[in-house]
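Repro:
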Amino acid sequence: MTAAAQGIGRAIALRFAAEGARVMAVDIDEAQLGTLSAAGIETARVDVTDSAALARVLGGARVDVVANCVGWVHHGTILDCSPADWRRAFQLNLDSIYEIVRLVLPSMIAAKSGSIVNIASLAGQRGAPNRAAYSATKAAVVGLTKSISADFARLGVRCNAICPAMIDTPSLDERIRATEDPAATRALFVSRHPVGRLGEPEEVAALAAYLASDESAFMTGAALLLDGGAGT
C-alpha cells in the first residue's frame, strides 16, 4: 500500500485492515504513517522513487494484493511543465507502479492468485485543463493496467484501475488553499460533479476493497470511473 499516510492511500489501508487483511503501508511521512499502527497496520518509511528501498520491503515477500496510490499533481499546461517537472510526474505516478508490480508479480504468479489495484484518475481518461503532466501519467497508468491484465490474467493475476474525479483529500485541500480565492475554487470544483459534492477517500477505499476481493474475480483490465457524474 503506497502513499498511505493520508487521503486515498490511508483510507484504503484502513479499509483493508478492517476487512481482516495484514497490511503493510508505506509513505515518506513517518509521523502520519505511524498513526496507522493503532489499526494493526505495519508501516515503513519508503520513498517510492528509491528502487532499493522498495526491494528491501517487497522483494521476496508473499503479496496477495497491492494498491498503488501515489499521485503527484503538477499544475499547468505542457508549456508550463519543465523537463524536471515532467520527469518527476512520471517517476512518482508511473515508474513507482512499474517498480512495485515487478517486485510483487513473481509471488502472485507462483500462487496463481493476486490482485493489483492502481489509482489512476478521470484526468487520465479525458484530460483536464492545466493538468498536462498529471493527465499523461494517469493515462499511462490505465494503459499499463490493461497490459498487465492482458499478460497475466491467465496466470491468476488480476489488475484493475480506479479513476476518481476530485476526492476531498488533504492534498486537494492544500491545492485549493493555495489559490487566490479558496472558497470560489472549491465551489468551482464541486460544480463539476453532478452529484453536487466532492468524493470521499472512503468511497475509493470501498471500491478498492471490492477489486481486492474474490467478489470481483471476473473483473480484470478495467478502468473504473468513480466520478460523481463528472465524466458523463
